Amino acid sequence: MRFGLVGTGPWAEICHAKGLSGAKDVDFIGIYGRNREKVKALTEKFNVVPFDDYSQMLAEVDAVSFCVPPAVQEELAVTAARHGKHLLLEKPISLSGSSAKRLADAVREANVASIVFFIFHFAEPERSLLTALKNQTWDGAWLRWFGSAFSTTSPYKDSVWRKDKGALWDLGPHAISILTPILGDIHSVSAVRGKGDLIQISAEHENKAISISTMSLTSPEASNDIEIAFYGKEGIVKFSRDTEEPAISFERAIYELMLSAAVPRPSHEFDVSFGVKVVELLEKIENSIVE
Asked: How far is the C-alpha of 274 from the C-alpha of 131, rounded, in Å?
């Protein structure tokens, strides 16, 4: 399958471009971006074609991998779907429920495949553990994710959309993608804002299961950590992110997109429809925040 990449930032390089260049049965055609210098540098590194015109890239590929801010992604992904291109998306797929549904409608109408790259579900050993946890009953869970995204050493220190939307919209999609497949859909939710972009979310899932998620992109570097735990009659299972290279995890998403594209009615557990549910929940959480 012929792939094009939209985006030239740090994650586009270390995850998307590297994953596309290493994946079997993939022809990584080229890269489109708004910054010509960055496009030139990245295409030279991966020996692919630089595209100044998005429509020109779409004419050359079967699928598009997106690594741009959510609002930009939504617009460009709608165009790609309407051109019959399969979509490998980043989370969140958009910044509003209405625009997320617009993208999902375009995907459905074009009958193209889509996957949202929630990395925990494509990385090992995390995906195997999460699959095993689905087969058990849990009373609840907690998730703690503290990062320093805007420190001087962070590759994301200049990310405007992350500064504007904070941990809720950057880390929140991961939390929802981890918690809801195991504890069930969220029936009610409330949130409290702390220092900086610190947010604590309390959610009631199916069968009275409770989850507490505490997240921040503006934590002191000394407190950076990720811990996820599920508890119930089976005991407590704790885990974090392992050390697998993001590009390797991304290759799995690429292969699963190609498998999805090969059937008459493409679908995937983490396709654009799931992406819409995540965005709608994020909006609901945002509206419940107590400052």
From this structure: 17
Contact 34, 85 (CB under 8 A): no
Listed residue (184, 186, 226) closest to 202, CA to CA: 186
Domains of the chain: 2-120+246-271 (3.40.50.720), 124-240 (3.30.360.10)
What gap in Å lies between CA 254 and CA 172, rounded to an integer? 23
DSSP code per residue over 58-84: HTT-SEEEE-S-HHHHHHHHHHHHHTT
CA nearest to 230, candidates 210, 216, 203: 210
What are the beta bridge partners of residue 188? 204
Which residue bears the tokens 């396709």? 271
What is the pTM (predicted TM-score) of this model?
A: 0.96
Q: Which residue has the tokens 């929140």?
A: 172
For residue 196, CA distances in Å to 31, 108, 193, 208, 281 come to 35, 39, 8, 31, 22
What lies within 8 Å, CB to CB, of 217 at 6+ separation is: 147, 148, 149, 150, 162, 166, 167, 170, 171, 196, 197
Start-end of H helices in 141-271: 160-170, 172-183, 246-261
Beta-bridge partner residues of 65:
5, 88
Averages of pLDDT over runs of 10 residues in the chain (291 residues) are 98 98 97 96 98 97 98 98 98 98 98 98 96 95 97 94 97 98 96 96 96 97 96 95 93 98 97 98 94 74
- SS3 breakdown of the chain: % helix, strand, coil, rounded to 5? 45, 25, 30
Chain center to CA of 205? 22
